[in-house]
Structure formats: C-alpha cells, structure tokens
C-alpha cells in the first residue's frame, strides 16, 4: 500500500479477505466493493481486524460506508484503538 497511515498487517488482512485484491495494487482509496468485498467477506474481515488489533467495533459503527475504502475502515479501527 502506498500510504503509510495504514498498518502492513491491515493490508495483509485485506488481501486475504477481499477476493479480487490478490497481489494487485492497493491504495488507501481502493474501492473494496469493486474488489469483491461482499457481506460474507466483510464479516470475515471484521472478525480478523478485531482479533488482530484487539478492538471491538460496535454495530452502530458498521453503518454507512466504513467498508468503502481501506482508509475508511482503518480510520474506524484507529478510533477504537485510541479509545481502548
């Protein structure tokens, strides 16, 4: 990923759970839905993120476009890390 605001472990989780990312280019603004993120993959992605970063993202934070881009999702993860 070309933006240092995102953790390398986060990128690995994205590549494992978003079907069409593979080894292709991934930026903070990559459209995750266009890259194949569906509801099942989103649940898996969320579970891996919560386990890896020791955070719990409440249901009310799952509304809107948090899964639109890596940056959107990472911002939610960081907010909950900072709150812990």
CATH topology group: Non-ribosomal Peptide Synthetase Peptidyl Carrier Protein, Chain A
How helical, in percent, are the residues? 40-55%
Order of helices and strands: HHH
The whole-angstrom Rg is 12 Å
CATH homologous superfamily (4th level) name: ACP-like
What's the overall geometry? Answer: globular
Q: Strand-residue fraction?
A: under 5%
Total helix count? Answer: 3
Low-confidence segments, ≥5 residues, pLDDT <50?
none
What number of structural domains do the residues give? 1
Largest sheet: none
Mean pLDDT over the residues = 88
CATH class: Mainly Alpha
Summarize the structure.
With about 80 residues, this protein is an all-alpha fold. It is about 45% helix and about 0% strand.
Using brief descriptors, characterize the structure shown.
84 residues, mainly alpha, Non-ribosomal Peptide Synthetase Peptidyl Carrier Protein, Chain A, 3 helices, 46% helix, globular
Report on this structure:
The chain has 84 residues and is mostly helical. The chain has one domain: Non-ribosomal Peptide Synthetase Peptidyl Carrier Protein, Chain A, CATH 1.10.1200. Helix content is 46%, strand content 0%. The protein is built from 3 helices and no strands. It has helices spanning 8-17, 39-53, 70-83. Helix 1 (8-17) packs antiparallel against helix 2. The longest helix has 15 residues, at 39-53. The radius of gyration is 12 Å and the shape is globular. The protein starts with 7 loop residues before the first helix and ends with a helix.
């Amino acid at each position: 990923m070309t933006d240092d605001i995102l953790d390398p472990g986060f990128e690995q989780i994205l590549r494992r759970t978003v079907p069409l990312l593979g080894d292709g280019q991934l930026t903070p603004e990559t459209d995750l839905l266009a890259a194949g993120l569906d509801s099942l993959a989103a649940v898996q992605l969320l579970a891996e993120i919560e386990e890896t970063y020791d955070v719990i993202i409440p249901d009310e934070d799952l509304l809107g476009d948090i899964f639109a881009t890596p940056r959107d999702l990472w911002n939610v993860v960081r907010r909950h890390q900072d709150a812990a």
